[in-house]
Design goal:
The complex is a heterotrimer of chains A (341), B (269) and C (285). Chain A has 341 residues and is of the alpha/beta class. Helix content of chain A is 36%, strand content 19%. Chain A has eleven helices and eleven strands. By secondary structure, chain B is mainly α. The N terminus of chain B is likely disordered. In chain B, helix 2 crosses helix 12 and helix 3 crosses helix 12. The chains are: A alpha/beta (341), B mainly alpha (269), C mainly alpha (285). The interface between B and C is large, with 97 and 102 residues.
């Protein structure tokens, strides 16, 4: 019995040993990472499938961007991601330590909306932060962030994104009368003073789905959320929700290449493909994602719901470089404000 | 001797037992409510978790078993929990026996070292594990197993130690004097005596892996998720009763394991 | 046993040290736990380059960190008190019950372990939210007309964490009671001490070690809780773990994350060291 038992133990150890072999693909299959959800499906059908058809090269798409994992991979020298589709806070020069500069001999910089292509990143779609409201509770259409902060005119709770650099200070300043083009550098003291006026009525949401539930269920009367989430709540989930584009804050999703990727050249070609006119304009086929290519003509049916169709109304744009340079300070001020009783 | 004293104490007045049950009721409710509440909610008809549950339908279970992602995540959880339990036992049992039965200096320090993975906040080690494991080439399953071994092994050591204290050193000396080597003494004398302790340690290790989410959040990838990680994503994303259905299944599985452990213990005694 | 004398052929060629059993475990612990923990904590002095103690200075003088530290400790203290009181009482009832009832109580205390921590925390959100079970009962029985705000409060965090950690105080307390020599109590009673006095002067001092061990564990474990406060707490209940998570994942400031981690780990180990005698008497003896 002892002997057979010993052998069984050895076998188990060996089995585990083989299981521990590195799970890194050896071929040149590209790996694309994005945030997931409905967006992930759009990327698959509108970008990656056509790419595989056209080039015959394989690309695997995974859901779940994670800046910390990317950094850990780069530092460990084991990078398994090739194209990383981050949000607007990602990919500024501050993140240069972990990224490969975009090769603008391959990627057509002049076709990208000015300001949305920089050293380490190229935007592949434009979205915005907007005000959405519950139509059962809010019967007169709000006109901007000032109404978000007006509890007398619009009673009820407000839901805000629980993310210091997600726009919470920006909406407070816009509500307080700061002109959209003079938002930056952010006057945090002024923003906090404004936020304090409605603090007891604030609910903080951590995920886009939560923001939809909060406003759709009527737990809050108004919410600050992504335009695609507001659209999803109203159109896909048929919740009593509507939204306005006045004073929206424009942002973009960006394509970046992690330093240490084994397929940099191929990744640059895929990025160029993703932002090219014929591909880029199909991003708006199913979702309200605005194109980043100046020549792209988006889905006409989606046009009324695209942030880029409402630039005649007042709007602001996130100054990502300033935010990245000051993110530590912003985070610290935000957490201090939020947790103060 | 204990029975006589307890029976004497048990001659409590009806008033006192009334107070006891009055106090115990809320404690038991707090203990059990969260586990039990999920079950009726998993049979709701509507696509969100509401109270009281509306209608009766098993469709969330059907949906669960139709979803390759959920099934894969459940399978991954089983795989990781089984492998990490086996390794935790292989590492933890010799350690527990050595700590309980052998004499060597620095035991308290080693004990403290062994239980640090239980008390150091998982959030602290999660990303560090991801980085070091990536460096070692351990991704997905192998990384998760390595991490969960660290969490499970202290539990195996503790239960093994308490069982090993019942081993009479005289028995060991007798076996050795009869010519048995240390290895065969271990398998023939020590192991049979401590097996129930090892078994409960293994169950605890299994459950702790089965349950673990903070580290798994870092170590799993979209292609290799465990059930708790997928549940976390669902809870923070779109909560539908599938989550309740998964929890009910996980609950039933763990419950079954626990009950069979108790039965085995009883039979052994 | 039939082979009376067998040559020592089966024994190891070289004598093994008595501590051989722990070496594989210690090696694994070093590579798979200590190294990862060290790799995060060491960021505190290596990032940015030549950081020295600047990260610690920055973190310790940051009022935000102070607020989160206070939240963490306040929650841990509340949870420890609740668990100590309820856990000791529960163990006492277990101790005094008949074997059948005791088995049921053991089962009830272990049952929560069958449900994942994540799901239990989530279940509390369903129980406590405005449209949840508690408010449903309160409104339907006419106790209140408007839902009471229970979710996203310290109350919710305390209840949620106490539920998860209660077994950690029940079992050590019970272990110490089971080891208690009942004749002592009888002796004290026969010497004329009343039940209350016997309890306070004989039973409680003898079983205090279990209470201490359990409370130390609960306290130490609550310092690192992440999931439960995030799901159940309001803005004023967020612990350091949340701050560390933000530094690690969204700000990528691993210098600060390392410093915070080092501070939390230091206090966890410090409290464990303080309670070590009790913990090792309960768990390792």
């Amino acid at each position: 019995m002892p002997l057979s038992f010993t052998i069984r133990i050895l076998a188990a150890v060996l089995a585990v040993g083989t299981a521990a072999a590195p799970a890194i693909a050896e071929d040149t299959t590209l790996v694309w990472v994005d945030g997931g959800g409905a967006y992930h499906d759009t990327v698959q059908t509108r970008v990656l499938d056509p790419w595989q058809e056209e080039t015959g090269n394989k690309v695997v798409s995974v859901a779940g961007t994670d800046n910390a994992k990317l950094r850990a991979m780069v530092e460990a020298g084991r990078v398994v991601w090739d194209v990383y589709n981050g949000d607007n806070s990602w990919g500024t020069d501050a993140d240069g330590e972990w990224l490969v500069p975009i090769d603008y001999s391959v990627v057509p910089k002049d076709e990208i909306i000015p300001g949305f292509a920089s050293t380490y990143r190229v935007a592949n779609m434009i979205y915005s932060i907007q005000l959405a409201y519950n139509t059962d509770q809010v019967t007169t259409k709000p006109e901007g962030w000032a109404d978000f902060f007006d509890l007398e005119k619009y009673p009820g709770k407000r839901a805000v994104m629980d993310y210091s650099v997600g726009g919470i200070f920006e909406i407070a300043l816009l509500a307080d009368g700061v002109k959209p083009d003079s938002l930056y550098p952010l006057d945090i003291d002024r923003a906090i003073a404004k936020l304090d006026t409605i603090k007891p009525s604030l609910v903080f949401w951590q995920s886009g789905a939560q923001s939809e539930e909060l406003v759709g269920s009527g737990e809050v009367a108004m919410v600050m959320t992504y335009n695609a989430r507001a659209y999803d709540a109203k159109v896909a989930l048929e919740m009593p929700v509507d939204y306005i584009f006045e004073e929206q804050i424009l942002a973009a999703a960006y394509l970046t290449v992690p330093k240490g990727s084994k397929n940099v050249d191929e990744a640059m070609k895929l990025i160029a493909f993703a932002v090219s006119k014929p591909i880029n304009e199909t991003m708006s086929a199913d979702l309200p994602l605005g194109p980043s290519n100046v020549n792209a003509s988006p889905n006409p049916e989606m046009a009324p719901d695209l942030p880029s169709s409402h630039l005649d109304k007042p709007y602001a744009v996130f100054d990502d470089q300033w935010i990245a340079a000051n993110s530590k300070m912003i985070e610290s001020r935000y957490q201090a404000w939020k947790s103060a009783q | 001797m204990k029975t006589s004293s307890t029976s004497q104490i048990r001659k409590a007045s009806g008033y006192r037992s009334l107070v006891t049950s009055l106090l115990m009721t809320p404690i038991l409710i707090i203990l059990l409510a969260p586990s039990l509440i999920i079950i009726p909610m998993s049979f709701t008809k509507v696509p969100f978790l509401s109270w009281p549950p509306k209608g009766f339908s098993a469709k969330w279970y059907a949906r669960l078993f139709d979803s390759p992602e959920w099934l894969a995540s459940l399978w991954h959880s089983v795989e990781v929990a089984l492998l990490s339990t086996i390794i935790a036992v292989l590492l933890g049992v010799p350690a527990g026996v050595s700590l309980a039965l052998k004499q060597w200096p620095g035991k308290q320090f080693v004990l403290a070292l062994i239980i640090t993975p239980l008390v150091v906040p998982t959030i602290v080690v999660g990303i560090g594990m991801y980085k070091i494991y990536a460096w070692l080439g351990l991704f997905d399953r192998s990384g998760l197993v390595a991490a969960h071994v660290m969490i499970g092994v202290p539990l195996v050591v503790v239960t093994t130690m308490s069982a090993a204290r019942q081993v009479n050193p005289v028995l060991l000396r007798a076996a050795r004097s009869l010519g048995a080597g240390p290895v065969s003494t271990f398998f023939r004398v020590t192991l049979p005596i401590i097996s129930s302790g090892v078994l409960s340690g293994a169950v605890f290790a299994f459950v702790s892996s089965w349950d673990e989410v903070v580290i798994a959040k870092f170590l799993s990838s979209p292609t290799y998720e465990t059930a708790p990680v997928r549940m976390w994503a669902q809870i923070t994303e779109r909560v539908d009763p599938t989550v309740a259905a998964v929890s009910s299944i996980l609950f039933a599985a763990a419950l079954l394991l626990m009950i069979s452990l108790m039965v085995v213990e009883r039979v052994r005694r | 046993m039939t082979t009376a004398v067998r040559p020592a052929a089966r024994s190891w060629p070289v004598p093994l040290p008595d501590s051989i059993g722990i070496w594989p475990l210690l090696a694994a612990l070093l590579v798979f736990f200590m190294l990862p923990a060290a790799s995060i904590i060491s960021n505190s002095v290596t990032e940015p380059e030549n950081a020295g103690l600047s990260n610690f200075r920055a973190v310790l003088t940051d009022p935000t960190f102070a607020i989160f530290a206070i939240n963490t400790v306040r929650t841990a203290v509340l949870v420890s008190i609740v668990c100590a009181a309820l856990g000791y009482f529960y163990a006492y009832v277990m101790y005094r019950s008949s074997p059948g009832v005791r088995a049921i109580l053991v089962f009830c205390a272990l049952l929560p372990l069958c449900t994942s921590l994540l799901v239990r925390s989530f279940a509390w959100t369903v129980i406590l939210r405005d449209t949840g079970i508690v408010n449903w009962i309160l409104i339907n029985t006419g106790v209140v007309s408007q839902p009471v705000g229970l979710l996203r409060t310290s109350f919710a965090v305390t209840v949620g964490m106490a539920q998860i950690l209660l077994p950690f105080s029940i079992f050590p307390a019970y272990v110490s009671m089971a080891r208690f020599d009942g004749t002592l109590l009888r002796a004290s009673r026969s010497l004329g001490a009343g039940p209350v006095r016997s309890f306070l002067e004989v039973f409680f001092p003898a079983t205090r070690v279990g209470l201490v061990a359990g409370t130390v564990l609960v306290f130490v474990l609550s310092l690192g809780y992440f999931i439960t406060p995030v799901l159940l707490g309001g803005p004023g209940d967020q612990p350091i773990a949340v701050l560390i998570d933000a530094q690690v994942t969204s700000l990528l400031d691993w210098g600060a994350a390392g410093a915070m981690s080092a501070i939390v780990t230091f206090f966890v180990l410090l409290f464990l060291a303080i309670g070590w005698r009790a913990v090792s008497r309960i768990f390792f003896a």
